[in-house]
Design brief:
eleven-stranded mixed sheet; Dipeptide-binding Protein, domain 3; 15 helices; 565 residues; alpha+beta; globular
């Protein structure tokens, strides 16, 4: 199927979804609940899905991925390609044409200057941009005219759609954020909590880690959208309460990320007021293995590459931790049909799904014990292994969620069977996935030995995502603790292979390199995949126009939602 065919199909689907919309604000209030509460409305200062999704209601990118993974224009007039002249023949630049007549919610013109500003904002070396990897290889972003912006790359870039595409890459207004560049970025509270946008809604009030109230954007480009006059975005609680609020009480119209055991979900659905929607993309529940020492004794240098981890630097320990896990049991109790087995961090699209790591599918407690024995880690009288005075005693953290706590309990027991002592910690999801550089409890700071969560990437090409684990991409004090290389992984061979992918156009060869990059991560055991998760949410039966999207934000087409009459 061609890009053009997919784009046409998506356009038809969106057109049909909007037929019921009578006019802007005609359907009253839309109520959305995310049990992980947003803490900021600026995706450049947070990698948390909750923050990216909430922001998507307000600020938007030039292009998106539709429900089929096809690139579609959003604020751009078209997707640039070599064929239409938007991508240069030498693959070293991409030129975006902006839709004419776009307005910011404050009534001012949206121009190419805002696009360039957004790039400069993220690429500022003192800013600590959470989405910096999307600008990998960019040499400059230049304004051609008010509606044209050109992105130039240092070398040929076969897939030039990293910048400004997807929910993680929205355009922010230059006039609003002009004093928020570099080190000043995190301190701009008003701007980060109340961004001026081009999206269907604007912020009326934002209470971090609690609730956001929004109103329809009077300057939205379609005079008949959004159908809802107001929007309440409630955060916090847990997945069970969120599901109940849609399926049973009908208090909310949409509940996100219903990470519930299958029997719990089935019982909830009997309430009859809601519909579950599930889609499989590249979302993987995984354990990140810290390659640096989180010991508080290092002060500001803890969990930085200045201090290697005292025992997780040993690949034998990391491999043993993975071997001890029964993934089939985790899938069964945690997700049922909404989960699949995987030994990869990139299980989709299918062309990138490697089979080289499938040994992880079978638990091997005996093999893990032998591996640690052979590596010189000796069990003491308390059953905990040690070597050269270093004990295998770990802090294992994740967000507060019933499924994740079940996983922690099982994995702690399996690790005990191989001589590893494990302390469990769970943190409020709004804090754990927040971007506050002053908090010690964010997943980016990683002040623990291992941590568990899930994330994925926009679109169907994993090049940018795989760039997350390059040397230098790790969070650290110099980047305001922003960065995507959470395990602090550094392998020059990996970086060289990623460089090769960035200049390879052939799709089969890109798939080969992508699988090889995945295999390095898996065989280095700095990421331990647990379950390939389906994106599972629910919406009220009265809510129309919802299209589950696993390749972009779930809020991607909220302007097309309406209430059945």
């Amino acid at each position: 199927m061609t890009l053009k065919t997919l784009a046409i199909g998506s356009a038809l689907a969106l057109s049909m979804a909007t037929m019921a919309i009578a006019g802007r604000g005609s359907d009253g209030e839309l109520k959305i609940i995310y049990w992980q509460a947003p803490s900021i409305l600026n995706p450049y200062l947070s990698g948390g899905t909750k923050d990216i999704d909430a922001s998507a209601l307000i600020i938007e990118p030039l292009g998106r991925y539709d429900e089929n993974g096809a690139l579609i224009p959003w604020l751009a007039a078209e997707i640039p390609t070599v064929k239409n002249g938007g991508v240069s023949e030498d693959l070293k630049s991409i030129t975006w044409k902006i839709k004419p007549g776009l307005k910011w919610s404050d009534g001012t013109d949206f121009t190419a200057n805002d696009v360039k500003f957004t790039a400069d904002y993220c690429m500022n070396p003192d800013g600590g941009c959470a989405q910096l990897s999307k600008f990998g290889g960019v040499s400059s972003v230049d304004v051609i005219d008010d509606l044209t912006v050109k992105v130039s790359f240092e070398k040929p870039t076969p897939f030039p759609y990293g910048p400004f595409v997807g929910g993680e890459q929205p355009i922010i207004q230059a006039a609003q954020f002009k004093n928020c560049v570099g080190a000043a970025a995190p301190s701009c509270t008003d701007e980060n909590f109340n961004p001026i946008g081009t999206g269907p809604f604007t912020v009326k009030e934002f209470r971090p880690n609690d609730v956001i109230t929004m109103v329809a954007n009077e300057n939205y480009r379609d005079p008949n959208k959004p159908a809802f006059a107001t929007l309440t975005f409630k955060g916090g609680g847990d997945a069970t309460a969120a599901a109940r609020a849609v399926f049973e009480t009908g208090e909310f119209d949409y509940a996100w990320n219903l990470q519930l055991a299958p029997d719990v979900m089935a019982k909830m659905a009997k309430g009859g007021k809601g519909v579950q929607v599930v889609g499989f993309g590249p979302l993987v529940e995984r354990i990140m293995v810290n390659q640096t020492d989180p010991d508080p004794k290092w002060g500001d240098e803890r969990s930085t590459r200045k201090h290697p981890h005292p025992f997780l630097s040993d690949i034998n320990v990391r491999k043993a931790l993975s071997m001890a896990i029964d993934r089939e049991l985790l899938r069964e109790i945690g997700y049922g049909p909404a989960g699949k087995l995987t030994c990869n961090v990139v299980p989709a699209p299918a062309a990138y799904n490697s089979t080289a790591n499938d040994s992880c599918l079978k638990q091997d407690i005996a093999g893990a014990n032998k591996l640690l024995d052979d590596a010189g880690w000796v069990k003491g009288s308390d059953g905990v292994r040690a070597k050269d005075g270093v004990r295998l005693s770990m802090l294992y953290q994740t967000s507060t969620n019933a499924v994740r706590q079940d996983f922690q309990a099982l994995i702690k027991d399996w690790w005990k069977q191989i001589g590893v002592e494990t302390e469990l910690r769970n943190l409020d999801a709004s804090v754990f996935f927040g971007g506050d550089p002053g908090s010690p409890d964010t997943f980016q700071k990683f002040f623990a030995d291992v941590e568990m969560y899930a994330n994925n990437f926009s679109g169907t090409d994993p090049q940018t995502y795989l760039g997350s684990w390059r040397c230098g991409a790790e969070p650290r004090p110099e980047t305001q603790w922003q960065g995507e290389n959470i395990p602090r992984h550094c392998n020059p061979k990996y970086d060289a292979l990623h460089d090769e992918m960035s200049k390879t156009a052939d799709l089969e060869e890109r798939a080969r390199i992508g699988k090889a990059l995945n295999d390095i991560l898996m065989q280095d055991y700095i990421i331990i995949p647990l379950v390939h998760r389906g994106n599972s949410s629910a919406h009220a039966k009265s809510l129309k126009g919802v299209i589950m999207n696993v390749w972009d934000t779930q809020m991607w087409n909220v302007a097309d939602w309406s209430r059945a009459k």
